[in-house]
Amino acid sequence: MAVYTDITNEELSLFLNDYDVGQLLSYRGIAEGVENSNFMVHTSTGNYILTLYEKRVDSNDLPFFLGLKEHLSTNGFSCPMPIKRMDGGMLGELAGRPAAMVSFLEGVWIRRPTPLHCRAVGATLAHLHSTAQGFELTRRNSLTVSDWRPLWERCLSSEGNIDTGLTKLVAPLLNDLEKNWPTELPSGVIHADAFPDNVFFIGDDLSGIIDFYFACNDFLAYDLAVCLNAWCFERDHAFNLTKGTALIAGYQSVRQLDEAERAALPTLAVGAALRFMLTRLYDWVNTPVGSLVVKKDPEEYVRKLRFHRGVNHASEYGLR
Fold it and tell me: What is the DSSP letter of 287?
């Protein structure tokens, strides 16, 4: 469920008066997503996505998120374009929440990705990194290596039970990552959350990427490591080397990894897996029963972490 704040027809009609989008015809809540309240809005000029930003999103980050989408879309990258108000702003207020509208992106997300899809994701990710180079705003990654130990400690101090086996896995990983995390890799704006449900396809053609609300400045290769975790494991949690090879080849068809990035990829993949395990674990042990926040099982990423621990070289992910 992703409608935490409901709205009325009257409230929405009044909100739309500040936009040149025509008359409201209908709207409905969108169930997917976990951070904000999202609605499909149909007006006399077309379809739009309306987002009400909930408390989990820092309103100070909204100019970065909206500005990035405007920059990417203006420069030919396929993603939702923010719809400006008649006063030129991209942000309004609705039902006591900051709110914005973006263009509707055609396509669906793939439930069972193939190597063909993975190659397209890799190439598109590299295009995103290239297109974002001219974007002037910056945002620190609030879920990078320096943030993982405090998040882990908050999990340990929660009322939920943490398995001792997980503690034995995470404690040495944190020590290793804090000691060996790279410092001098190529950096720029990354998506940081390009999971299958944020990447749309029409048939086998990638039509665009949505949901930039974890976008930030960080190592470009870290974004690739996030995608290795998100796209290249099967439902039994086994790593699919064919998909990994396709994803990396797609990325390198647009932007070649340098030697330092190649060497760092196993470390980055461990870090990416730990980041998503920790955020899932935090929600798992802290979200009350019956809450509207969708909890995702951290066990999936525990298994991925165990796989990454045995990787010694990026070739084991498919790097050629």
Answer: S
Average pLDDT over residues 187-202: 98
Q: Which amino acid is at 56?
A: R
**pLDDT tens profile 273-318:** 999 999 999 988 876 555 445 567 899 999 999 999 999 999 999 9
Q: Dump strand ranges (E) for 121-215.
A: 187-190, 199-202, 205-209
CA distance 120 to 115: 9
- The continuous run of DSSP H or E covering 7 comes out as none
Closest CA to 117 of 175, 38, 201, 193: 201
More confident residue, 102 or 288: 102
Inter-residue contact 206 to 199 (CB < 8 Å): yes
307, 272 contact by CB (below 8 A):
no
- How much of the chain, in percent, has pLDDT values that exceed 70? 95
**Proportion of the chain above pLDDT 90, given as a percent:** 86
Q: Are 48 and 101 in contact (CB under 8 A)?
A: yes
The 3-state DSSP class for residue 125 equals helix
Strand, coil or helix: 259 = helix
- The model's pTM: 0.94
The residue written with tokens 């993975």 in the block is: 118
**In this structure, are residues 240 and 227 in contact, taking their beta carbons and an 8 Å threshold?**
no
Pairwise CA distance, residues 247 & 127, whole Å:
13
Residue 138 CA, chain-centre distance (Å), reads: 17
Q: What are the tokens at 155?
A: 């999990």
pLDDT greater than 50 at residue 1:
no
Predicted pLDDT of residue 293: 53
Q: Of 195, 155, 166, 162, give the one whose Cα is nearest residue 287.
A: 155
- Of 60, 216, 192, which Cα lies nearest the Cα of 141? 216
From CA 110, how far away is CA 72, in angstroms rounded?
A: 23
